[in-house]
Amino acid sequence: MREIFENVCCSDVKIIVGEGSLSKLSELGDNNVAVIYSKQIDIGKVMYYLPNAYYIPINDGEEAKDLSNVINIIRELFNRNFDRGDYIVAVGGGTVTDVAGFVSSIYLRGINLVNVPTTLLGMVDAAIGGKNGINFNNIKNVIGTFYQPYMIISDISFLETLSLEELRKGLAEVIKYGLTLDKDLYDYLSLNNDKILNKDKESLEEIIYRSSLNKIRIVKEDEKELKGIRIVLNFGHTIGHAIEAGSKFKVSHGYAISVGMVCEAKMAEELGYAEEGVVEDVLWLVQLYGLPYDISQLNVNININEALKAIEMDKKHRGNLLLMPFPTRIGSWKKVEVPIETVKGFAEQCLK
């Protein structure tokens, strides 16, 4: 079990990674606790440590990230007299941490939040960083806040029953950190693919710990994306979000980001920002983990118009320019302003 402590702006954030870390829930004491959890998971492990909590099940998937869900949860908290000293514990994947984080940030202007991600994607990305969002008009995360959790518990015992497909979806985000921020992580992924895909506990703890460390350090430097640093966490996401929107969210986030990273690496290389060979390095690692690298592998029809509309609505645009993080070499990156029409042109090539 390993721990990370960081102060992000005005909040102390504690991340615990490893088997048995769920026991840290006992630190919540006698406060009122509401557990917002995915209907798809076995909540028994959490109930063991929080037998007196109030449990609120929600659906998984982008459809659950709706304002009506948020209002219903707030009504439940209000009716049970929750105050600012109490806790919300989010147990599940990215959908749950998004919804619970958003609720935590607006109820009484802020209530204590603990994230307990149960997927690899949640452990290395969604649960960390304080971004909370719900969808609007088929566009992801239009309504949202920045709100840091008090604690993030990544207990790898949850991954024991995780399917190989779900594991791969999370690995797309791990690969992102290796490509843009951490060459040592890239090398570790290159040498330990069999262990990781077979869910070796030490290997999983290593990649979750390194990913968590990479993300929280970037967030600490630029919590609200005002300095152009946190943008690195969006590598693969401009095209990836377009794929999600164009498929009406039938393509999972992890698979969309995997294809998005390949597309954006090609863009970086063709525009002259990436060293020759970066695309091959991206392709090689994505393929090593059995992730999709081309739109044809997603087996879903993509509405090009909806995808391009999502690019136009991308929150990283400044006038007619889109801010994008391009890998320059493995483990390094550069922020680049790209005309939106240029991005759309590359996207059309990738999505055909």
TrEMBL record:
Pathway: Metabolic intermediate biosynthesis; chorismate biosynthesis; chorismate from D-erythrose 4-phosphate and phosphoenolpyruvate: step 2/7. PANTHER family: 3-DEHYDROQUINATE SYNTHASE. The gene is aroB. Catalyzes the conversion of 3-deoxy-D-arabino-heptulosonate 7-phosphate (DAHP) to dehydroquinate (DHQ). Its main location: cytoplasm. It is an enzyme of class 4 (lyase). One of its GO terms (molecular function) is metal ion binding. Its cofactor is NAD(+); Co(2+); Zn(2+). Signal peptide: none annotated. Its EC number is 4.2.3.4. NAD(+) binds at D60, G61, E62, E63, A64, K65, T118, T119, K131, K140, F158, L159, E160, T161. The keyword Metal-binding applies. It is found in: Cytoplasm. It holds the Pfam family DHQ_synthase. Keywords: Amino-acid biosynthesis, Aromatic amino acid biosynthesis, Cobalt, Cytoplasm, Lyase, Metal-binding, NAD, Nucleotide-binding, Zinc. Binds 1 divalent metal cation per subunit. Can use either Co(2+) or Zn(2+). InterPro entries: Dehydroquinate_synthase, DHQ_synth_AroB, DHQ_synth_fam, DHQS/DOIS_N, DHQS_C. Zn(2+) binds at E173, H237, H253. Residues 57-168 form the 3-dehydroquinate synthase N-terminal domain. It catalyses: 7-phospho-2-dehydro-3-deoxy-D-arabino-heptonate = 3-dehydroquinate + phosphate. Gene3D superfamilies: 3.40.50.1970, Dehydroquinate synthase-like - alpha domain. CDD domains: DHQS (cd08195). This is 3-dehydroquinate synthase. Residues 170-316 form the 3-dehydroquinate synthase C-terminal domain. One of its GO terms (cellular component) is cytoplasm. It comes from the Archaea. GO terms for biological process: amino acid biosynthetic process; aromatic amino acid family biosynthetic process; chorismate biosynthetic process.
